[in-house]
Amino acid sequence: MSAATHEAATPVAPAEAGDGPANANAAGHAAHAEGHEADALTTPSAIAATSLTTTTTPTTTPTTTTTATTTSPPVAASPPPATAGPGAAGAGAGAGTAPPNIVAPSSYLRPHASRAVHRSADVSSLALTAFPVAPGPASKRPMTPLSPVDREQIDGLRAIRAFLKVRTSYDVLPLSYRLIIFDTSLLVKKSLNVLMQCAIVSAPLWDSKTSTFAGLLTTSDYLNVVQYYWQNPDALAQIDKFRLNSLRDIERAIGVMPIETVSIHPLRPLYEACRRMLASRARRIPLVDVDDETQREMVVSVITQYRILKFVCVNVKETQMLRKPLRDLNIGTRKDLATARMDTPVMDVIQMLVRRSISCVPIVDKDGTVLNVFEAVDVIALIKGGDYDNLNLSVGKALEKRQDDFPGIYTCTLNDRLDTIFDTVRKSRVHRLVIIDGANQLKGVLSLSDILDYTLNSPLGDEEEEDG
């Protein structure tokens, strides 16, 4: 299935629009939908057609949710949106002046042809001139001039980083969205049902006894419950009585990392939020504010890597400058890949997910041809309602239990470039891409974490900028 068609351009827009209201109540527990809001984004000008493809593959009534509709107030920390187009957001006002820490849009553009000629002439003259070299054991070699593609890549990365430093996490939020929060006294079994009914994969936790944020519930926590059951099959009846505040006991029992507690204030720069996610290896981060009157914490929302990257490619036109192919970039996982076959037991795949701290395992045949992908979120569908017998299924049988609206798997090749990948993220809900060759042979996996890490941490050559 080809990527979606291109869309029209507008100035800075929130990454995603909110869901419509839902009227059910979840035993007093509000809930957070990171995932299936209606997309009301407008996008930058069309980019060259991408070779990225998606392979399609062959369901519960809503019950308990609480919908919170909010209107985002103006954020003083954010600069005014640019008038020159979506890519100029955060790059300066329409009058041509740039806010602090923002490089003027003109510096993002390719060098003028005449300037390029002069620069080439300067380099040639330098090469013909003999300069005295200071004595020493190791003289510094002159730096190799960057190619136009390299220079353009660096300018594109610098533009993205500058944008992230002046935009806040609040800017990413849609005007209306659904927030789902679980009280830590909720049964694990009930929380699983709410996730399934709301089509989400994570939710913030709230300790009502202390009125504090208690962490973020993710699919990793349910994988830990599955492991505990597998190691203690006689404890199935006990598992059904587990509450969310018992997850730490389960984690200690099986020796895994505790629940995620990293968070950030909504008015902190997006750049800082990205840094915290990469440092903690989290794929999403809750926004936690403090009430001015009660001085108590309150969870505003949760932003994901997908939302951030989509916000970038909607509003930063310089993503079109990232034209180097993946084969020339140190990005993604290409060695020591975890794979499985259609007849591999589901529990073996779950062990791979937990042991390697990954979110998916490619499914291949005996020749290494990619057939499908088993994702961590597939486990939630298997154990809904407390049916742990499905863990005895093979991967092939387990994948048949996916919902009919599963979008398929997205693939790319090593010849694809980040500009086309950003364009695909802009148009489709992509969380990872499987890297293949022309014969559909597995060559690697490219996650959103990989893209975010490259965008923030890739060296900028002789003009390396400091972290802000």
From TrEMBL:
Chain spans, region Disordered: 1-38, 50-97
Keywords, ordered alphabetically: CBS domain, Repeat
Pfam families according to UniProt: CBS
GO cellular component: cytoplasm; nucleotide-activated protein kinase complex; nucleus
SMART domains: CBS
Keyword Cytoplasm: no
CBS domain location: 256-318, 332-390, 405-463
Any one GO molecular function term: protein kinase binding
Family note: Belongs to the 5'-AMP-activated protein kinase gamma subunit family.
This protein's name: CBS domain-containing protein
Organism, as annotated: Acrodontium crateriforme
